[in-house]
């Protein structure tokens, strides 16, 4: 095995993984993975184990990533969307007694974002209660929380948009006052902080994605994080078929009671490995995915630093090149006491045509993306679903109509930011502003 890995290392040097993106000639993607020989080495080593399902690399990653995120527990799953599904499903467990979330209960959230932050609410028969966001940070308007509250409210589920923390301290205090669960979707925000405390540590459960667009990647993959041992056990059950047993794959009878317990109407002593306490799934990762995650985790602090540097550079360049930018654009802005870990560079036009500007940038080989679903209640998937809206979603509609984002991921540098800023200026002058 060592000989094979050594041969691969000698053949694939750092330069083999470099992506050449020449502004104006090559397309500048809005996001992408950044890999090197260490990722390939880990991938090969795990494949040579032939264990395939979650194993030693998964165990290593869960321990290390929990430490990085300042949490007690990390459970790997096969995507960030699955992480959200498991996180919300956890709150529906009968083991939570009077705090169990049941069909018909309400969950406060926002409509400006990615659908799988909200979908688990509907998938479990609950009712999302949508409130508006504030501009230009795209976080929940906390002044609307009291209006959104009802006797049916059981939880709040929110994402930190594009790596920019919402006012999670205020939201957490509201949850504590009203005995509500808080799920933080950190899929775009690994490493972001509020008052020098990592996002994800305020809520009862946090979720993360390792899709190639995100801060680090396993290809596919995600994680559920918590410091609550009861929630960890429940989440693990939902992830692993809904089983009651906590033995890892390949292990038996770690509790020394495998054949000595009574469950529901099963025969006494029924094998605990085949006792199921939740309507669960199988959402585990392969050890090959986790192996890539282990090597990517070594680079994560540098990835975050590069993303934030690119964001700062692009803000500076746009301000220098477009003196009247404040009349035309909202640029990325963190709320007071927050430190973003930027996922993408969001721009909202105050006047003019987003469609024209985005088309201009794409024609000049600059990739763009919208702020995901824009306004979820205007999407086809929610046309026949039950939900409540508090007030008007005015800023959410503005995002739907006027917001887009460009890339600042670690494969890009100042030369790319310079080109993007130049083309934004040129696009604004090419008839975008009516």
Order of helices and strands: HHHEHEHEHEHEEEEEHHHEEEHEEHEH
Which strand-content bin applies to the residues?
5-15%
Provide the structure class: alpha/beta
Query: Helical element count?
Result: 13
Can you identify the CATH class of the largest domain? Answer: Alpha Beta
For the termini, the CA-CA separation is 64 Å
Instruction: Write the CATH fold name of the largest domain.
Output: Aspartate Aminotransferase, domain 2
- Tally the beta strands: 15
In words, what does this structure look like?
This protein has 434 residues and is of the alpha/beta class. It has helices at residues 2-11, 37-49, 56-68, 80-90, 115-123, 145-148, 168-178, 229-239, 287-321, 325-328, 354-363, 394-402, 414-432, and strands spanning 73-77, 106-110, 127-131, 153-159, 181-185, 193-194, 197-198, 205-209, 222-226, 329-330, 338-339, 345-349, 368-370, 388-389, 403-406. The chain has an eight-stranded mixed β-sheet with strand order 1-9-8-5-4-2-3-14, with helices on both faces. Helix 5 (115-123) links the parallel strand 2 and strand 3. The protein is globular and about 75 Å long. The N and C termini lie far apart (64 Å).
Structure at a glance:
The protein has 434 residues and is of the alpha/beta class.
Write the layout of secondary structure elements.
Blueprint: H1 2-11, H2 37-49, H3 56-68, E1 73-77, H4 80-90, E2 106-110, H5 115-123, E3 127-131, H6 145-148, E4 153-159, H7 168-178, E5 181-185, E6 193-194, E7 197-198, E8 205-209, E9 222-226, H8 229-239, H9 287-321, H10 325-328, E10 329-330, E11 338-339, E12 345-349, H11 354-363, E13 368-370, E14 388-389, H12 394-402, E15 403-406, H13 414-432
Parallel strand pairs: 2-3, 2-4, 3-14, 4-5, 5-8
Antiparallel strand pairs: 1-9, 6-7, 6-11, 8-9, 10-12, 12-15, 13-15
Helix pairs in contact: 2-9, 3-9, 4-5, 4-8, 9-13, 11-13
């Amino acid at each position: 095995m060592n000989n094979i890995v050594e041969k691969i290392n000698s053949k694939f040097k750092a330069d083999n993984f470099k992506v050449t993106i020449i502004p104006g000639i090559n397309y500048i993607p809005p996001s992408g993975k950044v890999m090197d020989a260490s990722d390939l080495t880990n991938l090969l080593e795990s494949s040579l184990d032939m264990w395939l399902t979650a194993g030693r690399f998964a165990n290593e990653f869960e321990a290390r990533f929990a430490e990085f995120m300042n949490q007690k527990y990390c459970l790997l799953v096969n995507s960030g969307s699955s992480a959200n599904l498991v996180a919300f499903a956890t709150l529906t467990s009968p083991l939570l007694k009077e705090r169990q979330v049941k069909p018909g209960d309400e969950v406060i959230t926002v409509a400006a974002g990615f659908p799988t932050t909200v979908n688990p609410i509907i998938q479990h028969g609950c009712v999302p209660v949508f409130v508006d966001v504030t501009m230009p940070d795209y976080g929940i308007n906390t002044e609307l929380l009291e209006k959104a509250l009802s006797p049916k409210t059981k939880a709040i589920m929110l994402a930190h948009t594009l790596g920019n923390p919402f006012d999670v301290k205020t939201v957490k205090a509201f949850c504590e006052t009203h005995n509500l669960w808080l799920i933080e979707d950190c899929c775009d925000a690994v490493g972001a902080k509020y008052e020098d405390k990592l996002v994800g540590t305020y809520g009862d459960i946090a979720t993360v994605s390792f899709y190639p667009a995100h801060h680090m990647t396993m290809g596919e993959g995600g994680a559920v994080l918590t410091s609550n041992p009861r929630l960890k056990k429940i989440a693990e059950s939902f992830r692993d078929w809904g089983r009651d047993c906590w033995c890892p794959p390949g292990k038996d009878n770690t509790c020394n009671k495998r054949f000595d317990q009574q469950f529901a109407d099963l025969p006494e002593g029924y094998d605990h490995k085949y006792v199921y306490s939740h309507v669960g799934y199988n959402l585990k990762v392969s050890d090959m995915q986790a192996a890539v995650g282990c090597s990517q985790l070594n680079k994560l602090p540098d990835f975050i630093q590069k993303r934030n540097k690119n964001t700062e550079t692009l803000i500076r360049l746009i301000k220098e090149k477009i003196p009247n930018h404040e009349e035309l654009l909202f640029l990325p802005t963190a709320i007071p006491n927050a430190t973003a870990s930027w996922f993408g560079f969001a721009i909202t036009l105050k006047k003019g045509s987003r469609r024209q500007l985005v088309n201009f940038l794409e024609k000049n080989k600059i990739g763009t993306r919208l702020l995901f679903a824009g306004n979820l209640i205007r999407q086809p998937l929610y046309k026949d679903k039950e939900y409540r809206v508090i007030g008007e979603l005015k800023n959410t509609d503005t995002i739907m109509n006027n917001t887009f984002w460009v890339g600042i991921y670690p494969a890009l540098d100042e030369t790319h930011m310079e080109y993007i800023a130049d083309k934004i200026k040129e696009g604004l002058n090419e008839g975008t502003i009516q």
